[in-house]
């Protein structure tokens, strides 16, 4: 258990390992407070390799707090397109405006002040304070909880806030004051590269190979303990990709709720047959010429799953005023309209790509 394990023993082996094994990452090359902040928000529930091009594009377009604070919302969402959890970038913009108004555009150094900013929790505040400012405060995320519970063979529920605080307090005691940045990043790196979240840990590469209690007791399959999430709600939907020549029909989602303010293909709840789908199209004052069933698709959100059935529909006339839909040129939709990854299975029928896919050429 954590309270019975001498954590001080992990420090030097960890720092020596990190010095030899740290990955070269764009936000590490120039760890300014802004770049650390952007990278840490992007890295939440997203793989490092996927984040790299997003990060480079984001900080090139919005290089500082001021540009983030002033960015037009649809441009901001387009930069985030494909990362998901769009409220994160909205919260970043709210925080950026607070920083401009209250702190003269300088991201605060103090951990407690950082926590007051919109969208910045304990882990992100710790990462900014330690990595960018060298403050000796922990940054405890899932990777850190995993490596600490395994090395100490602690079977506490890592989803409990009380246990996260317990780990933070334990790390504060052993954290090297002058090497806080390296220490926090090393813990994260160990969890990402060696003591991995899925599959067997690479114990032969671990600097704690001779210290780890989970290894000695063969407990890695049981630790960390994480209570099961509630079963996600499943929703069935019918998706319409409506085309005429180089134009496509889109719909803007409400400004609140799931995928707020983003653009989507017209859709309805439930699965429609071809006959029902054509009837729905005609009710929208559109004149269908041809309909083609598309493959089924699924997208998983944190609390809901979309199970989708799709149709490609070619129409004869674009009666925009009567249909109450938004008609856009396909090229314009790829450039200017943020479409969430939930619809990525169907964007290929508009000959466009979302998010990072737009920045890689086909081989």
What's this, in brief?
With 363 residues, the chain is of the alpha+beta class. It is built from 17 helices and seven strands. Strands 1, 2, 3, 4, 5, 6 and 7 form a seven-stranded mixed β-sheet that branches.
Describe this structure in words.
The chain has 363 residues and is an alpha+beta fold. It has helices spanning 11-21, 26-29, 33-42, 48-61, 65-70, 73-80, 87-102, 111-115, 122-132, 142-152, 161-174, 180-193, 213-216, 274-283, 320-323, 330-336, 344-347, and strands at residues 233-244, 247-252, 263-264, 267-269, 288-300, 304-315, 326-329. β1 (233-244) and β2 (247-252) form a beta hairpin. The radius of gyration is 24 Å and the shape is globular.
How is the topology of this model organized?
Blueprint: H1 11-21, H2 26-29, H3 33-42, H4 48-61, H5 65-70, H6 73-80, H7 87-102, H8 111-115, H9 122-132, H10 142-152, H11 161-174, H12 180-193, H13 213-216, E1 233-244, E2 247-252, E3 263-264, E4 267-269, H14 274-283, E5 288-300, E6 304-315, H15 320-323, E7 326-329, H16 330-336, H17 344-347
Parallel strand pairs: 1-6
Antiparallel strand pairs: 1-2, 1-4, 2-3, 2-7, 5-6
Q: What share of the residues does DSSP label as strand, in percent?
A: 5-15%
Distance between the termini: 51 Å
Number of domains: 2
Rounded Rg: 24 Å
CATH topology grouping of the largest domain: Endonuclease III, domain 1
| Helix content percent band | 40-55%
Overall morphology: globular
User: Under the CATH scheme, which class of the largest domain?
Assistant: Mainly Alpha
Fourth-level CATH superfamily of the largest domain = Hypothetical protein, domain 2
Would you report the number of β strands? Answer: 7
**What is the H-and-E element order?**
HHHHHHHHHHHHHEEEEHEEHEHH
Low-confidence stretches: 358-363
Structural class: alpha+beta
């Amino acid at each position: 258990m954590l309270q019975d394990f001498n954590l001080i023993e992990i420090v030097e082996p960890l720092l020596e390992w990190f010095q030899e094994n740290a990955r070269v990452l764009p936000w590490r090359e120039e760890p300014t407070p802004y770049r650390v902040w952007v990278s840490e928000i992007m890295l939440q529930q997203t793989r490092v390799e996927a984040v790299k091009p997003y990060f480079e594009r984001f900080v090139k377009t919005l290089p500082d707090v001021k540009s983030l604070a002033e960015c037009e919302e649809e441009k901001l969402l387009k930069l985030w397109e494909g990362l998901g959890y769009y409220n994160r970038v909205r919260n970043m913009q709210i925080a950026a405006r607070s920083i401009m108004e209250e702190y003269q555009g300088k991201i605060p150094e103090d951990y407690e002040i950082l926590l007051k900013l919109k969208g910045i929790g304990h882990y992100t505040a710790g990462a900014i304070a330690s990595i960018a400012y060298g403050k000796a405060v922990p940054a405890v995320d899932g990777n850190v909880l995993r490596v600490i519970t395994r090395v100490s063979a602690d079977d506490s529920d890592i989803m409990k806030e009380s246990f996260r605080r317990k780990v933070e307090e334990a790390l504060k005691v052993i954290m090297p004051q002058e090497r806080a940045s390296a220490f926090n990043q090393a813990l994260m790196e160990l969890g990402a590269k060696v003591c991995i979240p899925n599959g067997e840990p690479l114990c032969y590469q671990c600097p704690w190979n001779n210290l780890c209690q989970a290894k000695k007791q063969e407990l890695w399959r049981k630790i960390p303990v994480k209570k099961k999430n509630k079963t996600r709600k499943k929703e069935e939907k019918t998706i319409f990709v409506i085309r005429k020549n180089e134009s496509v029909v889109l719909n803007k989602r409400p400004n609140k709720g799931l995928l707020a303010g983003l653009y989507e293909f017209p859709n309805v709840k439930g699965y429609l047959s071809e006959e029902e789908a054509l009837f729905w199209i005609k009710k929208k004052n559109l004149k269908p010429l041809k309909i083609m069933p598309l493959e089924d698709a699924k997208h998983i959100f944190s609390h809901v799953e979309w199970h989708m059935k799709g149709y490609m529909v070619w129409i004869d006339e674009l009666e925009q005023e009567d249909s109450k839909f938004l008609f856009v040129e396909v090229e314009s939709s790829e450039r200017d309209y943020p479409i969430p990854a939930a619809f990525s299975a169907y964007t290929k029928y508009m000959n466009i790509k979302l998010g990072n896919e737009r920045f890689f050429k086909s081989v």
